[in-house]
Write a structure and sequence with these properties.
mainly alpha; elongated
Length: 950
């Protein structure tokens, strides 16, 4: 497997293995195990950087080759810059979180699993060379960030912030996917490198502008650009390590990465550079103005992050005005703006990560982030103050910090835009907005440093406040030192790291970083900076005294208010719509479903126009089949007339067993076995559920209602019958079953076609199905164990939990014959289930059937000997068994990557085994074993949960 794919898979594998590794070392903080992930990633990317010759490194692995979707990875200068940021800052954040999170009070295992999942998703975004693969990782960053923001899920604010983040970025992601698809249609390819290579041909496509607009929505929502910025301040409810990682160096930079990556493709398009520049500048000034009004440290950093992201977005926009090869005399301005954007992106990751961490230290040591209660901490936390001051000065653009260099380049790009615009009003707005926002940036940078650490001590207690441990101080200290190093010695990183990234955006760009220095004489940029310091200093002094600078603005309509109204409106509308047809009665709900089904089928048949039903070619109905049909109809019609629930269950089971008989008559042993065992387990579940319900009472229903129900049922049944007959009579394509029959043994090494389809040809479907089944079993378990309001009081009048467990777990059959026979039958059933599992590749059986057979044996054991016996004989948590099954199936699929094959590609061969002779060995058996464990765990979780429910 190529090293790029190994590095990409590493955080995912470590996240999956983290719970087990933590159990092996229970006294070790899970963070020390998780720290190995980013450190290995950092070492791997540094090795690739030093070993390469400067050319992009590509690697491909089949995923869905028939659809042209493969795991195409490409590591060029831009991807390397982001990969080092993700892994390097990721290592510092993990180290910081080890000392920030108390493993005795926090679910640290879950935290690091989600953090590693996010880390892998971000690497997938920056390394992917295929738009569909990139989109998959893009959405995975949204899901994993949702889990991280909602880490403290008992806080309503955390849940609200996580939901807002997911909704805003998720909707932008869907728009982006539509743009990707349009781009793929226009360019006849979904590979980013190929699309960039055909940029000139794409420029003439009518699909280019719609694709560009949709992709911009994804960029703006992910990078919190105005007006989609509303999710970022609420995401500050996440733990500080999450904020330091997601909102300084990674997630919010994903949109910037995509904009930079697609710059060679869309450069020169007015919609592209105009939108990026205008939205970026609006976000820059809006975020900086809102930041100075905040009284919470993390809220101030959130709006400052929004502002800084707007700055980089505007620079990327200015850097994409001129396409490659442009003959404009101002073409060099584009490369200079892109160079400034990349430098500030690196600076921002350093100083903003340090600031978030120092905010966390202050909160950790003082118990508050409220600026109105802070002050005077410099006496007790001088090292923390030094770190905070260095990072704040870099953010404000003060020499000799790195932020000064990138701010100078920003002013230079703004002035270049004015020159290229030849003095127009729009061109004048660029340097004007840049200067105004920079003055506000100076103000909020000073607020963060001075109001937290300067002045007299307020409500903090001197005895309680002190410097934190080295583990909390070291990561922000490293980042602050990096911010200083970027200013004093930019040549250490610019030629080898930033210039290759610039060449990915502008292949013909000259060396833009060779003349980086703190002093270039008195220049217009320096004069603008001096004016920023002067005006910013006055505003900083006046901010506490001048109400417009510190008082919150109350507007009748705000973006957050619009979001809340929209969400409430959607909730209210969906509740009204649902209440209109879900009134608590199954008859009306099912009636709506069947009416809509029959109506849609009738409309589809009318539109098709050429559907016919031909009965001449069908096999005749034999006597046994006719008797079975009559018995099936009789059992079905008898169910509504049953006088007790027990009889209704028996009649329903009879219907199921008659279907088993049909499968036997039609020579489908796999289906017959599956249906028979499913029916047995289902009847057991029905009995467990109905045991707790009151006696069945006859319901009085009007004759008109009965007639309507009969007509709806008849129409739905007739529609489905006609659909089945029409599908058999009027085939438009040849049956795919011929392919399976021909290739089952040749391609998959199995003679049981049904099992081969499940574990090989359609293995991905089976993989998703067992995941859905696992989620369903956990949901059932959670619902049963959920304590509803007032339930605790009601339980006080009945059995206590311990008494109920004693009564239920000791409950067993008193039938001596049943207990005697069960001992023998259990052995036979379990032996037969293992036979079905391992013989299923060639004979009737498989993991699903074998698992159901095992579950039925355990059900019999619980009936005969009680649940306590099962718990003693099998002291396992069946939920974990289910999870192990899913993990085994997933690892089997991932294992094919090691051999350069698509996901879930199986192999088989023959080997001479002692005592058994020549036998076939197939990897599909491992996948089937995962299905077996999953289904056993699911079935027993549900049965035991329902059985124990009071």
């Amino acid at each position: 497997m190529p090293l790029l794919h190994v590095l990409l898979l590493l955080p995912f594998l470590l996240a999956a293995a983290l719970p087990w590794l933590s159990r092996l070392a229970p006294r070790l903080h899970a963070g020390w195990i998780a720290l190995a992930g980013p450190l290995l990633l950092l070492a791997g990317f540094l090795r690739l950087r030093t070993a390469g010759d400067g050319a992009p490194l590509s690697a491909s692995m089949p995923w869905m080759p028939s659809l042209g979707v493969n795991l195409e990875l490409r590591l060029d200068g831009l991807a390397m810059l982001f990969a080092l940021l993700i892994s390097g800052i990721g290592a510092l954040v993990v180290l910081y979180s080890i000392f920030y999170l108390d493993r005795r009070r926090e679910a640290v295992g879950r935290f690091y699993a989600c953090l590693l999942l996010f880390m892998g998703a971000m690497l997938g975004v920056v390394l992917s060379d295929h738009l569909i693969v990139l989109y998959g990782f893009w959405e995975l960053t949204s899901v994993s960030s949702f889990l991280l923001i909602a880490f403290w899920h008992r806080r309503q604010a955390s849940l609200d912030g996580a939901l807002k983040s997911l909704l805003v970025t998720g909707m932008g992601g869907l728009a982006m996917l539509a743009g990707f698809l349009l781009l793929g249609i226009a360019g006849d390819s979904l590979r980013v490198s190929e699309l960039i290579g055909s940029a000139e041909a794409l420029a003439a496509s009518p699909l280019l502008l719609p694709a560009m607009g949709l992709i911009l929505l994804g960029v703006f929502t992910k990078s919190a650009q105005f007006p989609f910025h509303i999710w970022l301040p609420d995401a500050m409810e996440a733990p500080t390590p999450v904020s330091a990682y997601l909102h300084s160096a990674t997630m919010v930079k994903a949109g910037l990465y995509l904009a930079a990556r697609l710059t060679p493709l869309f450069a020169g398009q007015q919609l592209w550079y105009g939108s990026l520049t205008a939205v970026g500048l609006a976000t820059l000034v809006y975020g900086s103005f809102r930041a100075i009004k905040q009284t919470d440290l993390k809220a101030l950093l959130a709006y400052s992050t929004i502002s800084q992201l707007g700055l980089v977005t505007a620079l990327i926009g200015l850097g994409s005005v001129y396409p490659a090869g442009s003959a404009s005399p101002y073409a060099a301005y584009g490369a200079a703006a892109a160079a400034a954007g990349l430098l500030h992106l690196l600076n921002h990751a350093a100083f903003k990560g340090a600031l978030f961490m120092t905010a966390g230290i202050v909160d950790h040591e003082t118990g508050t982030r409220d600026l109105r209660r802070l002050g005077g901490l410099i006496r007790f936390m001088p090292v923390t103050f030094a770190v905070s001051l260095a990072a704040s000065l870099s953010m404000a653009g003060v020499p000799p910090l790195g932020g000064f260099l990138s701010k100078e380049l920003f002013f230079g790009s703004a002035l270049n835009a004015y020159r290229a615009g030849e003095g127009s009003l729009a061109a004048l707005l660029v340097p004007a907005v840049a200067w105004t926002a920079s003055a506000f940036t100076f103000v909020y940078s000073g607020i963060f440093a001075w109001r937290t650490f300067g002045g007299p001590a307020r409500e903090t207690r001197e005895a309680a406040v002190h410097e934190p441990s080295w583990g909390l101080l070291a990561p922000p200290l490293v980042l602050a030192a990096a911010a200083l190093l970027l200013g004093l010695a930019p040549a250490l990183v610019a030629p080898g790291l930033l210039q290759p990234a610039l060449l990915s955006m502008h292949p013909a760009a000259p060396d833009a970083y060779g003349e980086l220095a703190l002093w270039h004489g008195v220049t217009p940029e320096l004069l603008l900076t001096a004016a920023v310091f002067a005006v910013g200093g006055l505003l900083l002094y006046a901010a506490p005294r001048w109400a417009p600078l510190h008082r919150t603005i109350r507007l009748p309509l705000s973006w957050n208010g619009m979001y809340e109204r929209l969400l409430r409106g959607l909730d209210a509308g969906s509740e009204k719509l649902t209440a209109a047809y879900m009134d608590g009665g199954m008859r009306r709900s099912a009636g709506y479903i069947f009416v809509v089904l029959a109506a849609f089928l009738a409309i589809a048949a009318a539109l098709a126009g050429d559907i016919s039903v031909v009965l001449s070619g069908m096999a005749p109905v034999t006597l046994f089949e006719g008797i079975a049909v009559l018995a099936l109809i009789a059992a079905t019609l008898a169910v509504p007339f049953a006088q007790s629930r027990m009889m209704a269950i028996i009649l329903t089971g009879t219907v199921g067993y008659m279907v088993v008989l049909f499968f036997v008559l039609f020579r489908a042993p796999d289906l017959a076995l599956t249906q028979m065992i499913v029916e047995t387990v289902s009847v057991t579940l029905f009995l467990l559920c109905f045991y707790h319900l009151p006696a069945l009472k006859r319901e009085r229903v009007a004759r008109r209602t009965k007639l309507a129900s009969g007509l709806i049922a008849g129409a739905a049944g007739l529609a489905m019958t006609l659909v089945a007959l029409g599908a058999l009579s009027d085939r438009k394509f040849g049956s795919i079953s011929d392919f399976y029959l021909r290739n089952s043994y040749e391609l998959a090494g199995g003679k049981n076609v049904v099992n081969v389809i499940l574990v090989d040809f359609r293995g991905f479907d089976t993989m998703l199905e067992i995941v859905v089944l696992g989620i369903a079993s956990y949901a059932i378990y959670a619902i049963i164990r959920l304590k509803w309001p007032g339930e605790a009081e009601e339980e006080g009048s009945g059995l206590r939990e311990s008494e109920f467990r004693l009564v239920y777990e000791d409950a067993r059959s008193n039938d001596v014959i049943l207990q005697t026979l069960a001992k023998v039958i259990l052995f036979l059933i379990l032996t037969f289930s293992l036979y079905l599992l391992f013989a299923g590749h060639h004979q009737p059986g498989g993991g699903f059937i074998g698992a159901l057979m095992t579950a039925s044996a355990l059900v019999l054991m619980s009936i005969a000997f009680g649940v306590r016996t099962i718990r003693k004989a099998l002291p396992v948590d069946f939920r974990i068994v289910s999870a192990c099954g899913i993990s085994l199936a997933l690892l089997t699929g991932i294992g094919s990557f090691a051999f350069g094959k698509p996901f879930l590609s199986h192999a088989f061969g023959y080997a001479q085994l002692p005592f058994f002779g020549q036998n076939e060995l197939a990897t599909a058996v491992l996948f089937d074993l995962g299905v077996y464990f999953n289904v056993v765990g699911i079935t027993m979780t549900i049965i035991l949960a329902i059985g124990r429910d009071k």
